Amino acid sequence: NTKGLILCFGEMLIDFVPTVSGVSLAEAPAFLKAPGGAPANVAIAVSRLGGKVAFIGKLGDDEFGHMLAGILKKNGVSDDGLTFDQSARTALAFVTLRADGEREFMFYRNPSADMLLTPNELNLNLIRSAKVFHYGSISLIVEPSRSAHLKAMEEAKKAGALLSYDPNLRLPLWPSEKEAREKIFSIWDKADVIKISDNELEFLTKTNTIDDATALSLWHPNLKLLLVTLGDHGCRYYTKKFKGSVDAFKVNAVDTTGAGDSFVGALLGKIVDDLSVIEDEPRLKEALKFANACGAITTTKKGAIPALPTEAEALELI
Ligand code: ADP
Description:
The structure is a single chain. The protein is of the alpha/beta class and about 325 residues long. The protein has helices at about 40-50, 65-75, 125-130, 145-160, 175-185, 200-205, 210-215, 260-270, 280-300, 310-315, and strands at about 5-10, 15-20, 30-35, 50-60, 80-85, 90-95, 105-110, 130-135, 160-165, 195, 225-230, 235-240, 245. The chain has ten helices and 13 strands. The strands form two sheets. The protein has a nine-stranded mixed β-sheet with strand order 5-4-1-8-9-10-11-12-13, with helices on both faces. α1 (about 40-50) packs across α8. Bound molecules: adenosine-5'-diphosphate (ADP). This is fructokinase. It catalyses: D-fructose + ATP = D-fructose 6-phosphate + ADP + H(+).
């Protein structure tokens, strides 16, 4: 694979999802294992579309950790940046969409292995060889993974990588809303590309308006591309020179988990070997159309990883 390397940094975990829909966690009769974690989903999205990708993170040296490592490998994601913690366990989440429409979460993270990745454990050669470095925010919450996160970003940037950031706000994980905003903004101006969802736009700007002025209030001088995904309304894009939207594809959505990660992976695959796509509006729109198609397909099947498309599937929808 002669493509440029995309590196995804962050957590991989297992979501336990009730076998029946519309129940609270306490009412669930049993759970299904759904491997995920946003940066890991993005890595597999890139690989399934034919890109070259590695994942950097830490798993527990336990049954779940080895299962997740096996999923990365089976999906063609390099494990050169993967480490195992000998004492802490792999992160687990229990997630349900209750009948009242509210999501309920419970996490095993006290602390989980991903939070214990240290700066010394980073594979610096791998980081320095990346053309694109993509990251999420959960590792930012606590030490030592916060320091590892900051060092990895810095090394990638020094070596000339494009930095791509998706805050992936899972609010129940954060000690407070204030801390979530502060830590997200603490690395905001390091990113070259930022992708947020409409909900994250509202949260970060403390508004309930989704418009250009609100989106552009988040602009920073070094940013090259800001993307706001709008579910079945597609996405908006903003660069220094132009802005606009790309419509979504009409599909029969059954589970939107992983749609944003699929979108990001698809876009990064389209720009890694030619960053000038970002500055050329017709080509950027083509790339975003492809990303929208990948996001749409991901909503048509349950779970995130099993629902990530191949290039042929995306082209067929287009
Ligand atoms: P996130 O998963 O980060 O919340 P979105 O739900 O906005 O992000 O989804 C990302 C992209 O996936 C959207 O921009 C859109 O292209 C596609 N998508 C998501 N939901 C749907 C849907 N119901 N129908 C068609 N496309 C969708």
